[in-house]
Amino acid sequence: MRKTKTALLIAAxxxxxxxLLSACGQTPTQGAASPSSGVVTITWYxxxxxxxxxxxxxxxxxxxxxxxxxxKLISAPTSTNTDRANLTAEISGGASTPDVFNGDVIWPAQxxxxxxxxxxxxxxxxxxxxxxxxxxxAGASYKGQEYGAPLFMDAGFLYYRKDLLAKAHLPVPKTxxxxxxxxxxxxQKKLVRYGYVWEGNSYEGLTCDWMEFMTDAxxxxxxxxxxxxxxIDSAASLKALTFMRKLITSGVSPSSVTTFEEPQAMxxxxxxxxxxxxxxxxxWSNSNDPKVSKVVGKVGVAPLPTFSQSQYPGYSNIxxxxxxxNPHSQHISQDLTFIRWMTGTQAQTILAxxxxxxxxxxxxxxxxxxxxxxxxxxxxxxxxxxxxxSGTPSYPKISQAIYTNINSALTGSISPTAALKxxxxxxxRAVSSNSx
Length: 436
Ligand code: GLC
Hints:
It is a single chain. By secondary structure, the chain is of the alpha/beta class. The protein has 2 domains: 207 residues, Periplasmic binding protein-like II (D-Maltodextrin-Binding Protein, domain 2, 3-Layer(aba) Sandwich); 209 residues, Periplasmic binding protein-like II (D-Maltodextrin-Binding Protein, domain 2). Helix content is 41%, strand content 16%. A hairpin with a 2-residue loop joins strand 5 and strand 6. Bound molecules: alpha-D-glucopyranose. The site of alpha-D-glucopyranose has 13 residues, from helix 8 and strand 12.
């Protein structure tokens, strides 16, 4: 369902393994087993996920139940593009660390094809994959082999300020034009600085936001499942892009939204400076954590709006992260133990109940006690999901053609019409050369 390949985007640094290790105050030998104690330390490369301490919570619970395994965190950047660049450079260079790493759901084809991830199908029984919600194991596979264990699923949501809408007697927007109008009113009343913040930087996250706007307007990247010819340059895409640009030119979104990734959009919302936010499921727990947010208790979550009320809700892009094993790891058995635990009931319940993630473990996802405390999980069944076209080895180039050109139109450096034309030409070139 969601597959890709290669790290194209990226200027890779060959010195990265040493840099990453020293950044954590760790020397390369520390990853090795300590025969005297019988304790093995494995390294886990993972970004902050929710920005509120989820990694250390999981590590300490895991270590408690597995006294012979220590997990050393290597803190990864928040950007999926940078993560992919770092890992591709390290693992293709033969580094044996990190032992395990969090990787985007759009990576299995690249990592599987380029041998950057261990084929888990050869190390875990088939029955292991039955724990996942339908479709997720398929999404982590490439050519029939499983390269990742689904860790959490992501979907795009609308976060809104309940208190501001109530003050101005405004409804939660169901259409994009309603969101625009609500924003203008709240800004004119000087109740808030910005209306809407989202992910507009030139990177993978903009492709996600674009998939939502474009699909809802009736547009597509490809006309058929064989991904042979792009149809992104359409009237529907133009409608979507014109609206996105209007958000910026009107001041509903700050002009700096064209440099925002998830953390920047989140920070503006957490600081109380935007009425609406587009972000993934973790934004619920983040915006309700007093350590990082000034809007605790004032936040509501809903499906994304649509261009036409009759088709509410709009589309949400499918994201998420898997855990992969470095094929050069010296500690495969401990890595697999960690993966089993991270996708098991305890870890998945923590992710879902404390950090508002959508669990991949189906039993946890369906558990009424979990659903009661995770409002995002209750909405996800109502949203319309759209995947990125990541099943082809050319996906990184396809995505790059989308986000660079859409970003240029958002900044005003080229017109929406020219941006779509260029995007289509570049996607067609990527697909026809099947270049990695
Ligand atoms: C989230 C999603 C991931 C997506 C990324 C884009 O991390 O889970 O799938 O690629 O955002 O920034």
